[in-house]
Amino acid sequence: MLSLLHTYITVYKLRSFSKAAAVLYISQPTVSVHIKKLEQLTETPLFLRNDDKSITPTEFGDILYPQAQNIIKNWDNTIIDLDKKKRSRKSITLLLSHSISELYFKNFIPKLILNFPHIDFTFLVKNSTEIMQLVTEDSSVIGLIEEPTNRIDFYEVKLFEDGLIHVGNPTSPYWITREWDYSLHELSQVYWNLHHLKFNEIATNNLSFLFKLVANDIGQTLTSKKALDSLPKIQWQETSLARDFTLISKKNPLKNTNLALLITFLIEEFKNNTHIEENNSRLNKS
């Protein structure tokens, strides 16, 4: 249809089939076919063929001309709008707990960026309490935290269970706590009571700094078993304690939205990586 209208507009302007053919780089018979098809579709004669081979638009042709121009213009604008939409980039903020950002970065961040090239990501590292507050205020963000919330106003999914180990110099009188991590602090209290332990405390809000302390034989602490990747030579022992790393958002996102696709990706990635690490752990033990 658009090619017919383009031909018609050109013929109307030039009042000549042959001149229109030259301008459009098509044959004159093709021009004649286009005009004939358009006349059949509209069921009206659009041009009068004169004896001297000149043409004159009919009254119907005069009516169609501006309408044809509008159709072409609207179509062109539609294509531009669609192209802008396809090229427009979305922005999503991912709120990460300190442990997830430090210990699980390579498990999903590079692949996340690779699989969502049309999204501009903002990664903010916060403690779990701060993340819950930000998710409460903004339905367009996703939070990855170190504990379940059990809040009815959240969409919440358990990503995996993070096993905890006791690391550090067993003769050190210091226990290192992360002052912003209430859940881990609470688990430490449970662990102390279970084993009748008592320590002087060192507090820090930085996980990397905590690892540096432990690596330099300053203090003991509970941390994710995943931390052994960063502390390969450290003394450690298993515990029966664990915490649930959890994904939260303000509401269950609509299907096939960027947010929904992103959440599905994160759930699957953590599930797959957990299975891989469990299998590797079994192989190492055997």
UniProtKB/TrEMBL annotation:
Q: Which PROSITE patterns match?
A: HTH_LYSR (PS50931)
One short Pfam name that applies is: HTH_1
Q: Which domain of life is it from?
A: Bacteria
Give start and end of each HTH lysR-type domain: 1-58
Q: Which InterPro entries match?
A: HTH-type_LysR_regulators, LysR_HTH_N, WH-like_DNA-bd_sf, WH_DNA-bd_sf
Q: What GO molecular function annotation could you give as one example from this UniProt entry?
A: DNA-binding transcription factor activity
An example of a Gene Ontology cellular component annotation for this protein is: cytosol
Name-wise, this protein is HTH lysR-type domain-containing protein
Q: Which organism is the protein's source? A: Brochothrix thermosphacta (Microbacterium thermosphactum)
